[in-house]
Amino acid sequence: MQIHHQTYIKANPEKVYRTLITAEGWNAWFTDHTSLYLNENGEGKITFSWSSYGVKKENIEDGGDILTAIPNKLFVFQWSPGEGKTTVKFELEQVKEGTLLLLEETGYTTSSKDLSACIGCATGWGEAMTLLKMYLEYGIVCKDDYRF
C-alpha cells in the first residue's frame, strides 16, 4: 500500500525545502514540536510530537532517520505510524513561479494495524499538504485551536 499526494505551491523550491529541513518549518504547519538534525551529507534524525491530538486528545511522538536531503529537490525520512517503518518522500519540482510538491509514503503491510494507519495517514497527509500550502503562500501558521 502506498500514499500519493501532490500540490502546487506558489513559492520557489528553496522556500519549500527550507520549511521541510527545519523544526520551525514543520512546527508551523504539521506538529506541536519537531526536533531535527541534518548533517552535511543529507542524513540525520527527525522527531515529531503532538500534544492533546485528535478526538482522544493523545500525546503522540514519532520519527526516525532522515535518509536523503537534496537541496531544493528531495527530502526523505522514515517514521512508524503503523506496525513498522514507512518511508515518506517529498519531491520538489520547479513549475513556473512555484513548486509542484509530490508526496509518496511507502512501506505499509496488509495487516489491520497498517491498513488503519495507512488510511489515517492518507487523510492526514492531504490535510497537511493543504496546511503547508497555506503557510507558504499566506503565512498562516497552524495553531492548536485549529487542529481537530
TrEMBL record:
Superkingdom of origin: Bacteria
InterPro entries listed in its UniProt record: ASHA1/2-like_C, START-like_dom_sf
Gene3D superfamilies recorded: 3.30.530.20
Occurrences of domain Activator of Hsp90 ATPase homologue 1/2-like C-terminal (ranges): 10-137
SUPFAM superfamilies: Bet v1-like
Family note: Belongs to the AHA1 family.
Stated name of the protein: SRPBCC domain-containing protein
